[in-house]
């Protein structure tokens, strides 16, 4: 059996690193054939030296010459390309049969859609692309005829607890999908306690080590909101059949509640390599480098309802999903602008949900027609968000 050829989009990130760790454990099964990063040529060159891909892409065209120079200096022979179009072409191209979509943010939309349309096995981490273009991504998948296996840990857990991966929920007797949330670093605090939160405090997640954008999303609970939307699309689950429960130990990664009263859960140590290995090898199981779960040492599993008053972003995500159309794309774009401003020190922590709410009010939902209109609406929402930012906070 020849190894699967894996394109790792976002190779220098947190998910990219975990993916390459699993790949390196199974050279007979997987090969990293395409590696993509945004701007960090040094980190990408180091990965190329180790994994020897066929193609290395740096998304920022200004960095291509620097990448080529570094690879030549290291004696790495591979094709070098740059630009967003090269990323999209590679995701659909002949050098890979599997695509790990691990670019952060709306920047991952085109390549995710392209991989789906081309019928690749799509390992989806880039939740923003399904939050933006849910229906379009599902159409692209049907068109391409490939598999989508989620590697967001909650959705991977649900995938594992359903019969046959992504079946018809009603016919399978599923009553509810229950997404667990760690609660982030500020669990238990009230709005009055969150006025002076710094980016480093928000990024210090108690259980998971992740990129800065998703760490902030976890602190606001927007991450869980995006995941509710993701679950709705991935599993064709009605919004009222999706529930969120806070579980601070992050050992139960999500659950499926069946009509006969059975509740199936997937447990494990909080390490993304479990979900990634599951998705890479499905339907087989492979070693992922994750320590066995020691239940007696952990001793307890706690659960509590989320505090939607303090963590408004989760309520806003539910509302956007109920509003339908492109409201979730507007939510996502406004959130990306807000998180960037918070990380840059120009928006307070509580301003993130305020800004997203204002933009959702300014731009009522419209039907999603095609990718072009979606991208235009994403841009419109970003302009509106920057407008709110300047008027209210600068
Ligand atoms: P990260 O910031 O650590 O890495 C992001 C990667 O994307 C980097 O390799 C970066 O170079 C690349 N990138 C950024 N902009 C790009 C662009 N315009 N073109 C090409 N590449 C670009 O982020 P992460 O934590 O690995 O998260 C990646 C995605 O996975 C996000 O959508 C996140 O929500 C999702 N996710 C992450 C985790 C986690 O544990 N980290 C868990 C579940 C889902
Ligand atoms: Mg998750």
From TrEMBL:
The keyword Oxidoreductase is assigned to this record: yes
Catalytic activity: 2-C-methyl-D-erythritol 4-phosphate + NADP(+) = 1-deoxy-D-xylulose 5-phosphate + NADPH + H(+)
InterPro entries: DXP_reductoisomerase, DXP_reductoisomerase_C, DXP_reductoisomerase_N, DXPR_C, DXPR_C_sf, NAD(P)-bd_dom_sf
Enzyme Commission numbers on file: 1.1.1.267
Keywords, alphabetical: Isoprene biosynthesis, Magnesium, Manganese, Metal-binding, NADP, Oxidoreductase
Signal peptide limits: none
Keyword Transcription regulation applies: no
Domain 1-deoxy-D-xylulose 5-phosphate reductoisomerase N-terminal stretches: 6-134
Binding site for Mn(2+): 152, 154, 227
One Pfam family recorded for the sequence: DXP_redisom_C
Positions of the DXP reductoisomerase C-terminal domain: 267-383
Enzyme class: oxidoreductase
Single annotated GO MF: 1-deoxy-D-xylulose-5-phosphate reductoisomerase activity
Span of domain 1-deoxy-D-xylulose 5-phosphate reductoisomerase C-terminal: 148-235
Cofactor: Mg(2+); Mn(2+)
Family assignment from sequence similarity: Belongs to the DXR family.
Entries under NCBIfam families matching the protein: Dxr, PRK12464.1
Protein name as it appears in the record: 1-deoxy-D-xylulose 5-phosphate reductoisomerase
UniProt organism field: Luteibacter flocculans
């Amino acid at each position: 059996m020849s190894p699967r050829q894996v394109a790792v989009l976002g190779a220098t990130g947190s998910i990219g690193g975990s993916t390459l760790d699993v790949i390196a454990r199974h050279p007979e099964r997987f090969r990293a054939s395409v590696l993509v990063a945004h701007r960090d040529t040094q980190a990408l060159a180091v990965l190329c030296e180790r994994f020897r891909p066929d193609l290395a892409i740096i998304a920022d065209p200004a960095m291509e010459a620097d990448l080529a120079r570094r690879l030549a200096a290291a004696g790495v022979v591979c094709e070098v390309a740059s630009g967003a179009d090269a990323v999209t072409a590679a995701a659909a191209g002949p050098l890979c049969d599997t695509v790990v979509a691990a670019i952060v943010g709306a920047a991952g939309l085109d390549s995710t859609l392209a991989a789906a349309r081309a019928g690749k096995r799509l390992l989806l981490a880039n939740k923003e692309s399904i939050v933006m273009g849910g229906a379009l991504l599902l159409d692209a998948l049907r068109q391409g005829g490939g598999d989508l296996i989620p590697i967001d840990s909650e959705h991977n857990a649900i995938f594992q607890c359903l019969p046959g991966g992504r079946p018809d929920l009603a016919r399978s007797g599923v009553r509810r999908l229950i997404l667990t949330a760690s609660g982030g670093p500020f669990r238990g605090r009230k709005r009055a306690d969150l006025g002076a939160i710094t980016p480093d405090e928000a990024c210090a997640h108690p259980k998971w080590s992740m990129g800065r954008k998703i760490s902030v999303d976890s602190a606001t609970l927007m991450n869980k909101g995006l995941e509710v939307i993701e679950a709705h699309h991935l599993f064709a689950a009605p919004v009222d059949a999706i529930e969120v429960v806070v579980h601070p130990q992050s050992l139960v990664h999500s659950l499926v509640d069946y009509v006969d009263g059975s509740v199936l859960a997937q447990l494990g140590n909080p390490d993304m390599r479990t979900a990634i290995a599951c998705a890479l090898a499905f339907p087989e199981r492979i070693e992922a480098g994750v320590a066995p779960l020691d239940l007696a040492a952990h001793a307890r599993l706690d659960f509590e309802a989320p505090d939607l008053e303090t963590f408004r972003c989760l309520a806003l995500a539910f509302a956007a999903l109920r509003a339908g159309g492109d409201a979730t794309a507007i939510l996502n774009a406004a959130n990306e602008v807000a998180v960037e401003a918070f990380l840059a020190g120009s928006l307070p922590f509580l301003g993130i949900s305020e800004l997203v709410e204002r933009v959702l009010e300014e731009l009522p939902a419209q039907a999603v027609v095609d990718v072009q209109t979606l991208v235009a609406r994403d841009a419109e929402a970003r302009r509106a968000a920057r407008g709110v930012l300047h008027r209210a906070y600068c």
